[in-house]
Automatic annotation (TrEMBL), chains A, B, C, D:
The gene is gnd2. It holds the Pfam family 6PGD. It comes from Nocardia farcinica (strain IFM 10152). Belongs to the 6-phosphogluconate dehydrogenase family. The lineage of its organism: Bacteria, Bacillati, Actinomycetota, Actinomycetes, Mycobacteriales. Residues 187-339 form the 6-phosphogluconate dehydrogenase C-terminal domain. One of its GO terms (biological process) is D-gluconate metabolic process. InterPro entries: 6-PGluconate_DH-like_C_sf (IPR008927), 6DGDH_YqeC (IPR004849), 6PGD_dom2 (IPR013328), 6PGDH_C (IPR006114), 6PGDH_NADP-bd (IPR006115), NAD(P)-bd_dom_sf (IPR036291), Pgluconate_DH (IPR006183). The keyword DNA damage does not apply. Keywords: Gluconate utilization, Oxidoreductase. This is Putative 6-phosphogluconate dehydrogenase.
Length: 342, 342, 342, 342
């Protein structure tokens, strides 16, 4: 089968690599030729690339399959541009990190032209080339079914994890790592929640490791204290110098918190045991926010996911004004002066 | 009636002032003479002071009433020292910010000597001299009853707030601003929870004002964004330049969030509209932590109080290690580099 | 000055009462005549009412001032209807609980007709008639200035609170209880954040009182425990039977947490000490959600406000599915059975 | 090597099985004989068991290795009892879920007798027999080193997970699934934080799945609403019927949130897609609370772990009083009546 890919960066390029390696062919489009040439050199004839959008569309067999894999902010304009060149029955896929609201709208906009719109949330990051990508898919049943051979090649496959007890017979698509989640937007919706969970789980590890990191607190803080500091009632309880990198390693085998995120954390801590190469300003790329928005809209309590998101905001200094308000209040009612900066 | 006061700092001195002004007499003890001389000059003969603990005890009428008003860390030693000089029937009061666990223990220790132990949580801060102090009291009924004339003078009195609808007849002590909450430790327990609530309410204001402070976000952040930043979907919703000091002022009259904390906030923002005199490192003095400990012990959900406490920790940089862990994870699975420091 | 009021329920009726009592006149409109008749009987000639919208508009002096005070869901349609009957220079006020997004849109829609749109967030609840209403106002400067005499009558006035230290001279509008916060939507934006803070502060009290309520935990839970329950390490720390209604009363005078919300809580607990008349399903009316949405959009950490909102969701059973997931996980990895329902 | 095991329940029995299968011998003690007989039948001569503690001790080679694997509440008494029968140089292991405070104290108490105390936090649950147990160990270096052959047999071994990139040469103990974390208590300290993280990660999944579960909210809630309910601004965004069991399955392969907890969740949801066999009352067994206590003591922000813990408390109805307070406040200031029970 043939795939057209717009955007040949890390994600788009690796998806192309997976399908070509699995026997399919691909046509790539990008404004600049560097990635095109690299893929051509690597994949040979089963890949062709072009910097001309019309050429790209012309090179595709009908019904065309056009996967757009570019930053979310640019996706709308590119889809509109390519849709002008497509015909009824063609399929456009947004595989990036768009908000699912946009999918719902775009699917409606393309429907009168007979163009099918499919949204695919893609997880796997820089490891996707080898591990395969987990695919969460939204759209009408027919075009999604049409894509099945490609999806199977991109996804990790059933062997990527032990089979869930109780599941027998032919593996479902979910067991192979791709799932048709519902109509337009459902793929990005599920991917969005996936990332919301990711933020929460990451924060759970980070908070716990911070507690281990501070387990030597009683060695430096004895029972003395100023009026502005809370005394440590039992300094003898905090006299551990925990080797945090080794702890993350030991938890990888046999423990309840074993996970791929923990694997990565153990690797990162092995490479940089004190995390000196990081400053602690943590970005968020939207999905965590949108997950919270969805929780709020539907009345679902999500205190853990919210705390994780707000922790990222705070890491970037966004609590500063609020903290100043607190200091101002404390000074006003109690005459408390702030502690000096450490 | 006569009160013995150990510790003549801001809090102890103002309590002495209130009772002497109300017709009682006081004997003060402190190691240095400066505060003693100041109070003597101000209050005249109804106040005597000494830097000799034996003289202090000798000057008190029996049953002696000894109020200890010094930093929590020093209270235990001073109570032990003065208790050596006291007689059965005397009353020792811890009016500071001790943890109530210490009250339970100390009351047990003093019981064999026939000395009554009373713990009094005191709220009112630097305004207590004029407004009166809110008193939360723990101890046996008899000694607490014995203290009633003094407590009445220290507390704000019924006129400090409109009477609660439905309350008629002789005002209860609670309506006058002092309350016997239960046996030893109950006073500091209630004061502890009071401060826990205080942290939560303060944080509610601080977070809300921070949102107002950022209401101009859409003026500086249009719809563009990098892959590491979340776009603002509707910049037109965030084009307000809110005058935060004026907002705190308007809320003081007629709104649901009117409070004494808001009064103080409005004053602080009037004096320093941009809070330039504050750095945002917020201390905590123990009660917020102990309130959380109590919630955890008794299985009571306290997410708001916890968030308020943890916000203070974070304001002092204590999230840094956790934030670095998050950055390390993001780099590991997604190749994301951190945003540069602003 | 004259005010036209659409909606004569509790809020609209009380605003009419305040302005008429202060010397202004009012024209009221409502579909049914009951409230009209009641106000007429009470206020006499300075109030006229009608169930006919055209009559209502005709009775107003130009430039007309039309205050719409109806549930947020119906406001849009009514404003559209009345706007058809208005002329350039007239002023429409939305005094309800609309989302500020709607204000921004409506102001744009009415601008071509020359009709001024003003949004007023109103706080004060059932006590506003006597205490006055706190008014947060958005709109263009001229129409807002035109409304000044009415706003002054509706607001509580400067005497409603002690003057903030450092403020001298003629009181500002904020000191009288009303504030022009910015362009269209700014009034409802500030009111929204006000309610967000309200949720947070309410939850702070509620959590703290719950801890007091459980302070007798050690009397019923000694050190024994099952494998599914956490033992209480120090039952002797939780042997207090706290009189929660009296605690709320004592905090009203002299304490740092004194507030109007606390006044109301003390009254409610005096009337119903065990809160037997309540079931604990807590509604939220939108502002708390929208405050969170604004925090998320602008990257402001709001963990306390979020926890307060999510607590309300949970009170209505919305955590149930998540809790079942947790139970399923615990059973899966540890063989833990759920505790039976109490 | 030989191991003495006190407590032959699920955990103790499976540890015995693992070491005997790996070539060691074991002596078991339990008050009742059922488990002893079962293990004897299964393991043959390399296992002996007794219901007599003196016989148990007598059957052990010196230096004796006595692993106590019983509920935390009973551990202290049993260790005291067996210690009376031991000799200098013997080793007592607490492998249960004791609080690490107890380890610090017990190690001190046994030191004068020359008995070594080792605490081992054990993770692995019901799957430990096959997967191996993750072991977190506290104690003096010599006795821990002496135990090495046994620990190696109990732990999962290096093949249980892919080797962390950058780790070469002879695998460290951590890579084999056991780690000497520090002096007495360090094992249970690390296990405690492990469980705190577990609570947080579990809650992250549970909240996210709840959002997926409610993704059909717009199908039942259109834009209408009462004054006590928040309208859904965009019902068209919530029209998905997500197959939550299939989503957990698809995430197992290639996604960032793949984990052992997710594997278990997918299995649980496959077996009971609507979780009908669960009521949603979630226990906590202490470690989550103690993790929070440690965070509070050392000033580490742990909002995610706290939210997870408090969610469990709330699932058991412990928010009820607080929720009633909120309802009472809402009624007091706004005249709001509670929503009826669903």
């Amino acid at each position: 089968m043939q795939l057209g890919m717009i955007g040949l960066g890390r994600m788009g390029g690796n998806i192309v690599r997976r399908i070509v390696r699995d026997g399919h062919t691909a046509v790539g489009y990008e404004r600049k030729s560097a990635n095109i040439e690299e893929l051509r050199a690597e994949l040979g004839e089963r890949f062709q690339g072009t910097t001309d959008l019309r050429e790209f569309v012309a090179a595709l067999e009908t019904p065309r399959v056009v996967w757009v894999m570019i930053p979310a902010g640019a996706t709308g304009a590119v889809i509109a541009e390519v849709a002008e060149l497509l015909e009824p029955g063609d399929i456009v896929i947004d595989g990036g990190n768009s908000r699912y609201h946009d999918d719902i709208r775009r699917a409606e906009e393309l429907k009168p032209k007979g163009i099918h719109y499919v949204d695919i949330g893609t997880s796997g990051g820089v490891f996707g080339l080898d591990r395969g990508f987990c695919l969460m898919i939204g759209g009408e049943p027919e075009p999604v079914a049409h894509l099945d051979p490609l999806l199977k090649s991109i996804a990790p496959g059933v062997d990527a994890a032990p089979r869930t007890p109780g599941r027998t017979g032919e593996p479902t698509p979910a067991e192979q790592g791709y799932l048709h989640c519902g109509p337009a937007g459902a793929g990005h919706f599920v991917k969005m929640v996936h990332n919301g969970i990711e933020y929460g789980a990451m924060a759970a590890y980070a908070e716990g490791l911070n507690i281990l990191h501070k387990a030597d607190y009683g060695l430096s803080h004895s029972g003395e204290f100023s009026a502005e500091e809370t005394p440590l009632e039992h300094p003898e309880h905090y006299r551990y110098r925990i080797d945090v990198p080794e702890v993350t390693e030991v938890w990888r085998r046999g423990s309840v918190v074993a996970s791929w995120l923990l694997d990565l954390t153990a690797a990162a801590l092995h490479a940089d045991p004190n995390l000196d190469s990081f400053g602690g300003r943590v970005s968020d790329s939207g999905e965590g926010r949108w997950t919270l928005d969805a929780a709020i809209d539907t009345g679902v309590p999500a205190p853990v996911l919210a705390a994780a998101l707000f922790g990222r905001f705070s890491s970037r200094g966004e609590s500063l004004y609020a903290d100043k308000v607190l200091s101002a209040m404390r000074k006003a009612f109690g005459g408390h002066n702030e502690l000096p900066r450490a």
